[in-house]
Design a protein that fits this description.
alpha/beta, Aspartate Aminotransferase, domain 1, Aspartate Aminotransferase, domain 2, 2 domains, seven-stranded mixed beta sheet, four-stranded antiparallel beta sheet, 13 strands, disordered N terminus, binds pyridoxal-5'-phosphate
Length: about 400
């Protein structure tokens, strides 16, 4: 089979092609396979934010008042989307900032241990290394297995790192490296059963994986809605469970800290641009109007298609679990014997394909993010452009 195979578009493919054409500003000359880093907001989000900025500037003080209830509506919408009570949702700028809240806000002592994997995002691991140094704590790192066959394997790997001194468990819901989606509920249970603070980096999960945060019940769950939810940039979410709220000191003390029995005490405060959060509400409405389950089904199909097609590249090995319950819309692969950083540059400069390339334990990998603005043609193009350069 070759590229012509996908030239006949099914009605479903046409539906998604129209969504992309009508609702995204993406440059048609670029094959954008990098939404895992930062997602492209659809037109309605961009329009909402720009209209809101214009309205605001016409009478700033009046619009501060107008925006306030709209931001609360956005909080309620996001809360419903992630299966949480709105009183447990704080608005932060991004995952980096949200992670700092429990890291800076919980109290630790020398000798306490933080347990995490070797594949936490650098900004997140740096945050905990900093805290560990400040308190004289130890960071215990578990190597996340690269070939994951079952959810229990991940739970066993993390359990093996718990000691009597462990105080905090830091895990990612969807790993930025391989796209592995962990069994959240089981890991939260593991941590809670051992009396640990369970802090979850959900940067990639919101908009990718169905969430029932109140049921999963981590102490903190943090995300960047500008990734897979395609929200305006700078819309981060921090979930704080009821039993953690009184133990975490807010990073910034604004008028929302007292008296306040809710997670909004952890919000970004003071005068600032709130229009991205108005865009957040529209980003959720936009995906709901298409149908989030429909989006998920399409994206899972695309990821499955990519995993299959990559196998046609000589020497390629997919590191993302094949099981769709253990993965989402990120697909990571290596190509034995190939110079991946060079290939990535060539793909960009010669074929305008946007990918990312890094190392996992000295293995060079490509990470490909596919969302509903992508198509099987994008995947075919990626695979054929790689094959051309390796032959
Ligand atoms: C797993 C993970 N955590 C945290 C972050 C940081 O997100 P942000 O830059 O929005 O703070 C990223 C960014 O790519 C990520 O992939």
């Amino acid at each position: 089979m070759d590229n012509t195979e996908t030239e006949t578009l099914s009605s479903d493919d046409q539906f998604w092609a129209e969504i992309r054409r009508n609702h995204f500003l993406l440059n048609p000359e670029v094959t954008f396979l990098q939404g895992g880093s930062v997602g492209p907001s659809p037109r309605p989000v961009v329009d909402k934010v720009t209209e809101s900025i214009r309205a605001f500037e016409s009478d700033p003080l009046h619009h501060q008042g107008v925006f306030h209830p709209l931001v609360q509506e956005a909080r309620e919408k996001l809360a419903a989307f992630v299966g949480a009570h709105p009183d447990r949702i704080a608005f932060v700028q991004n995952t980096t900032m949200g992670m700092s809240v429990p890291a800076q806000g919980l109290t630790f002592k020398a000798g306490d241990e933080v347990l995490m994997t070797d594949q936490e995002y650098p900004a997140v691991s740096a945050c905990w290394w900093y805290i560990a140094e400040r308190y004289g704590m130890t960071i215990r790192t578990v190597e996340l297995p690269l070939a994951i066959e079952s959810p229990e394997q991940i739970v066993r790997a993390m359990a093996s790192g718990i000691t009597p001194n462990t105080r905090v468990l830091v895990v990612s819901h969807v790993y930025w490296t391989t796209g592995l989606a962990i069994p959240l509920t089981e890991l939260v249970r593991l941590g809670r059963d051992h009396g640990l603070w369970v802090i979850v980096d959900g940067a990639h999960a919101v908009g990718m994986v169905p969430l029932r945060l109140d049921d999963a019940h981590p102490h903190c769950y943090i995300s960047s809605c500008h990734k897979w939810l395609l929200s305006a940039k700078g819309t981060g979410m921090l979930y704080v469970s009821d039993d953690a709220q009184d133990h975490v000191r807010p990073l910034i003390l604004g008028r929302n800290v007292y008296p306040n029995p809710k997670a909004s005490r952890f919000d970004m405060v003071g005068t600032r641009d709130m229009t991205p959060f108005l865009g957040l509400a529209v980003a959720i409405d936009f995906q709901m109007s298409i149908g989030w389950e429909r989006i998920r089904a399409y994206c899972q199909g695309l990821a499955g298609y990519l995993k299959e097609r990559v196998k046609r590249i000589k020497g390629a090995r997919v590191l993302t679990p094949a099981d769709p319950t253990l993965s989402g819309f990120i697909t990571t692969f290596t190509i034995d014997g190939a110079d991946l950083p060079k290939l990535q540059q060539q793909l960009w400069h010669e074929a305008r394909i946007e990918t990312t390339c890094f190392h996992i334990r000295n293995i060079p990998v490509f990470r490909i993010s596919t969302h509903f603005y992508n198509s099987r043609q994008d995947i075919d193009k990626l695979v054929s452009e790689i094959q051309k350069r390796l032959s």
